[in-house]
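Supplementary notes for students who missed Thursday's class. We covered one full example, reproduced here. Read the sequence, then the structure, then the short commentary at the end.
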Amino acid sequence: MMRDMTARQVRIFELILVLSVAFLPALIKSITFLITGDIGEQRQMGNIDYVVWVSQAILSIALLFYILLRNNKNFGHIGLNLKFTRQDLLLGLVLMALAWLFSGVLSGSFNSFSPALSDRAAKPQNMDFLKIHSVGLIFIISIVFPLQEELIVRGFTMTEIFGLTENKKLAVTISVLIQFSYHLYQGLPAALLILPYFILVAIYFVRTGNLNAIIISHFLFDFIGLMMRR
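Structure (token representation):
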């Protein structure tokens, strides 16, 4: 079957495959929540649940690595430099600060329009599974999932969309919409509150082609957020 596909069709297939393995479960959960207002009984995850969750994320990264190798590429071709620098850390902190600023402005707009909307935005739904008591597990999750998201939905997706269309704006738009869509299980107001971050880092990546600072900012966001939920 692959032999009958054009190179362009194979690239599109590989992109959809990686995105599906990485994010389809969260997307199904989000769509279900939007339609029904319920995603079933929520419970605190056990150790095995976390192992499965992290393993699925690592599997999607491994699949991406295989596809890159098959095309004589590596993670460097989609923006990851394994040598993180102080400048990466500084830029990551700047991205995080800007995202907090933009989200704060958006939250203020919600509050002026409807205090109830602002309250829902500040309290994401269906998040009980992220009440993690182990600092070690929080650290692992805060590394694995930012890597997964930024390598796949940012680096790989944006690089492939631009390669297929030569349209940077389209690459930014598709990347942001994908990431926004699978966060909707938190509720639309809460997802809108983190939308400025998705837009900010997508624009940063399309301008710099560097994922390092984005991964650092995402790690800090996740680590701080998870520590606050303990």
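Commentary. The longest helix spans residues 135-165. The mean pLDDT is 91. If anything here is unclear, bring it to office hours.
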